[in-house]
Amino acid sequence: MASAGEAREWASAALRGIGDSLYTPFCGVDGDDIDWDAYRTLVRYCVGDLGHQMLWCTSGLAEFWALTISERKRLLEVAIEEGRRLNPHVVVQACTAATSAKDCLELTQHAQQAGADIVYIQTPMMEAHAGEGVLRFFSYIADRTDIALGMFNSPSSGYVLTPVEGARIAEEIPAICATKEGAFRPAASRRLHELAPYLALWECDTTVYRAGWLREGIVCPAQLGTAGYLYETPRRRIFTEYWGLVYADRLIEAMDFARESGLDQFGLDIGSWFTCYPGRADYFTHWAGAFKYAASVLGLPVGDYPHSRPPQAILPDAAKAQIQAAYRKLGLIDA
């Protein structure tokens, strides 16, 4: 774990490889409980069976907005316990986003005490007075903690920081060493890098990697928070192989591999169910029910309540059929 003062030097060396964003498997009536055995299995699968280098805990895919404070703390603790047992060097990233700065602080202090490596704070979901308000929020946390911090710039927050606002926050808070740019704005990410080149930046629009942005130093050699475990199996590690080629700057080979392996086509075949609810098509979501259904298709445990908690909707049968067909076509499940 890096202290706030060591954060930027640490990030440049440690943030590498594939980081898995973990779902939360629910059980019981209306999903009011968590299936801890299923969660432990998921962590072991990502770190042990797939050999992925990082974990991304209690984020949007985990439904942080539907979890209690105590549930979020325990989910992080279990991820650290199981992950470090298999790989003492696995990088554990914790998302401590909350509408209340005090709740975010409690979660961040807990992450520091529990042994997480870095904490990411999503732009507050409500009543954020643009960059000035977000800076106050981050400052409140940074003044009371001693751990590496990252920004999480997601459209699901309702407000996306401009490059100038993000750079100002990073300039005033030395603990901030990384940013997950989730708004699919490559031009803005390039501008943020120009203003704050010391940030380890991940752009969710992964086409920029094919454009040589890693070689230029704009993005870091890591997928900070993907669901990489949904794109490969231990017997066919196509996601790992693809990103290995990208990180080795073998871009033509990487693009050929993505086409020939079916990864590119899979992205089209599976559709937008992971991030789009049709009834609110203009809103970027993390539809946890879709991620968990995909995991179940691959044989991963998702608990006996396989849906998202409210306020997310139940995944429709049409989505399930499309997801299944995409996996069959990719060859990760039997035809």
TrEMBL record:
A GO term, aspect molecular function: 4-hydroxy-tetrahydrodipicolinate synthase activity
Domain of life: Bacteria
Signal peptide stretch: none
EC number assigned by the record: 4.3.3.7
Keywords: Lyase
InterPro entries cross-referenced by the UniProt entry: Aldolase_TIM, DapA-like
PANTHER family on file: 4-HYDROXY-2-OXOGLUTARATE ALDOLASE, MITOCHONDRIAL (PTHR12128:SF66), DIHYDRODIPICOLINATE SYNTHASE (PTHR12128)
Similarity remark: Belongs to the DapA family.
Record's protein name: 4-hydroxy-tetrahydrodipicolinate synthase
Gene source species: Mycolicibacterium frederiksbergense
